[in-house]
Amino acid sequence: MENNPNNEFKMIKELKLLDTTLREGMQLRPVNFTIDQQLAIVQGLNEFGIDIIELTSAVAYPGVEQEIIQIKKHCSGAKLVVHSRAVRSDIERALSCGVDGIDLFLGTSLWSQEFGHGRKKDEIIKTVVPFVQWLKKEGVFVRYGAEDAFRTDIKELLEILKPIVGSGVDQIDLPDTVGSATPFQVQRTVKLVRQQFQEVDIEFHGHNDMGCAVANSLAAILGGANVIDVSLLGLGERVGITSLGGMVAALQSVNPLLLEKYNLKLVIPLERMVASFLGIQVPFNQPLSAEYAWGHSAGVHLNAIIKNPESYENLNPEVFGGKRILNIGSRLTGKNILTERAKEIGLSLTENQVLEAVAKVKTEAVRENRVLEVEEVDEILRGVEKSGDNDKK
Questions:
Q1: Contacts of 19 (CB under 8 A, 6+ apart)
Q2: Are 55 and 99 in contact (CB under 8 A)?
Q3: Which domains does the chain have, with CATH numbers?
Q4: 301 an active-site residue?
Q5: Do residues 81 and 104 make contact, with C-beta atoms less than 8 angstroms apart?
Q6: Phi and psi of 19, rounded to 5°?
Q7: pLDDT tens figures, 174-200
């Protein structure tokens, strides 16, 4: 059955994913990846089929240039770009590492202009345009990021972007830098930019401060963006950005054809690997890679799931190498799932016996304050059958 019968996303034919775990992700306080961990992440992303990998600035910390050079040697498939301030020495250091492109950024909002770099509209243009022209002569990919785009007056934003696009930039990035934008605002703003600039790729970078990162990314796609920034586990400043798992889950729901080029079974191991690097558990609500991402407990749910998983699942776990978990030993269990389980282990219970088993499972789950393991449920079922046999004697 069709999940989204009026799906606007079916009109979208192409999309790129840019992973910024090794740039944005490095800005989260607990994140200090070793070079070996960075190489493992890059290898995994390349095997997944990511389109673009963004690295942190070539002047960020001692030894970073050597790390970038080493990563470049091990990066096959994905375009490798470096995040850079609009400062010539920063850009030159990045170029010396042999990367494929430069991700320039210079804020456009009044906050950026007054409290960040101190440049007004005309100065922003005069700073960025020569860098774009120079980089294009160098033959490298160049993106311009209008930091804090969604708190920038739209008229001024378009006035800033026009000469930058005219100078030959390959890609425009529209970041929701403080995570304040709503999906409606994102779609409207991206659409206005797309209407003005058909010839360039439009990238969206969404922070998750209001829990809207994935929704905003989808809205950006509807508005005309064709590059979406993600990071593993959504790592990034403050509460992070759009996660790879969340974005992939959303795209699988609205238009799976956009994901055909990616190895979807690598999302879960990649995100769990990063969690292990950080010494943390994958968050319980992380799409796809959470331990119980496909766990079901309520009796009504379990009853429907065993008949047709789509009754209570939007996504098929097998597509991602995930595993459906039926919590038959919870305090919420029901007679239908225990009837089914009894049959699976070769038992033939009467309805009264099943109800007795349900009561025992619920009581034990409450007493233990946990979900019983399947083996424990099986023991209860066998015990009920055995006591029934004894009653017949």
A1: 45, 50, 52, 53, 54, 78, 229, 230, 231, 232, 244
A2: yes
A3: 13-278 (3.20.20.70), 295-392 (no CATH)
A4: yes
A5: no
A6: -95, 130
A7: 999 999 999 999 999 999 999 999 999
